Amino acid sequence: MHPVGCGAGGVAMTIQDERAESPGRPQRADARRNHDLLLQAARELFDEEGDTSMEAIAKRAGVGVGTLYRHFPKRIDVVEAVYRDDVDQVVAVAERDVATRTPWEAVDSFLHAFVAYAFGKRRFLTELREAFEKNPELKCDARERLEAAIRLVVERGQGAGVVRSDVTGDEVFGLLGPMCTSASFTREQCDRLVGMVLDGLRPPVAASR
Q: Concatenated DSSP letters for 34-87?
């Protein structure tokens, strides 16, 4: 009887657990969708206005303010989440391009993606600084990931002979970051400067052809 009881109990418990979990699955999907909508809305408003309110973010996302606060209790939490998501997207570009593009195409694509990312931070630099003060690891972790992404595409290009060997990914990072966040440059100027950086990254022999 003991084996039968354990078997029946085990089956009954498994079915009960599945039934208990199934109503939660759509809720988790809804929560994920709302989270993504809120991030996108916040990113758009930061780009358009810089300083924006929680109410405006919820309205743009098409959700209630209560939903926003369940995901992000404080405005600084929204800033941090947008920043993390932006870093994730830029790093994903490097990983994707290394796997699907030629070495030089990967360098070109990633540098332009990095410029777009860095330029977009101008609108909420004040909020970002607050986020960095609240969570110092946020900036350090992001920097490490971005530097690793740049090294990935640069070193692959160097291995293929399309990027000069006397430059490091960290140097490229140090050049692009301040350039793109400087208020003295427009987006068009940043794009032109990236073109100049790309020309400078080519090996001297390739550049002279």
A: HHHHHHHHHHHHHHHHSS--HHHHHHHHTS-HHHHHHH-SSHHHHHHHHHHHHH
